[in-house]
Amino acid sequence: MSDETAAVTATVIATYSRRMGLRLANDAIVDARIKGKRIKPVCGDIVNAEPIDNESDWLITAINDRRNELTRPNMRGKVEVLAANFDTLVVVASVAPVPDWYIVDRYLCAAELIGVEPIVVFNKTDLIAGHGIEIPELQEYRDIGLQVFECSAEKNKGIRKIRKALSDQCTIVVGQSGVGKSSLINELVADSQQRTADISHKTGEGRHTTVNSVMIPLRGGGSVIDSPGVRDYAPALSDSSDAAFGFREISAAAQACRFANCRHLREPGCAVKDGVEQDTISYRRYESFKRMVNLTEKLSEGKY
Question: What domains lie within the chain, and their CATH numbers?
Fold first, then answer.
């Protein structure tokens, strides 16, 4: 092992279980191992690393403080960190597989809670072009002030606007398996061909094509983190009351509730419930919020 003066800070740009890809300050890319079992770097982490004598590998010795982190509870009820230190979260839905808007909402909730810009991208619009099909959920997101883009990665349509929105940002791209995240990223970045796969004809669900997270440079500046597709997702919340802060229209309306500790479920004088009744808050989004509260409570009780 080289002496301590050889240690540098580097960015984790790829994860392979206990092995990592690092980008050094001079933009050199090196492979690295992790010292011990206590530290668990993720894509986007800034780490301390040092070269190993007589080897091409480097050794990661510590993780620097994170600006933010995308989390979820794992099967044991522990918090799992998926990525760190990013500026924007893009959640991708598509014509096929059938969108699960509750999963979309959970990702948006996570983005709001950690203070990063949430963006919705609706892919594979070529499959419904000319059929006059409207997607009401996309208008719901526009109504609350979110950036929403419709595109076809397959036909390279709508990509330029997305690339401009992500310029000079570190962005994580998330969503259900099969929605075309890797195809979208292929169109956004230079010299990258992430693996893609057709939707499984047997199940209608997407096959998992991205085994590990990887950070890829964007054309014109910035980068994207391609994460594995999911069939379900929930952020790891410390308390179910936090869910309201992840739904911006509910958080805004809550300022007018009669009680400061209103949970927006059955309490009298609830401005959020009034908003739903008056159609100023989407009924579907309100149901999504209640599901998030219920799910968080089940997770805390170990019942999920």
Answer: 4-63 (2.40.50.140), 69-226 (3.40.50.300), 240-300 (1.10.40.50)
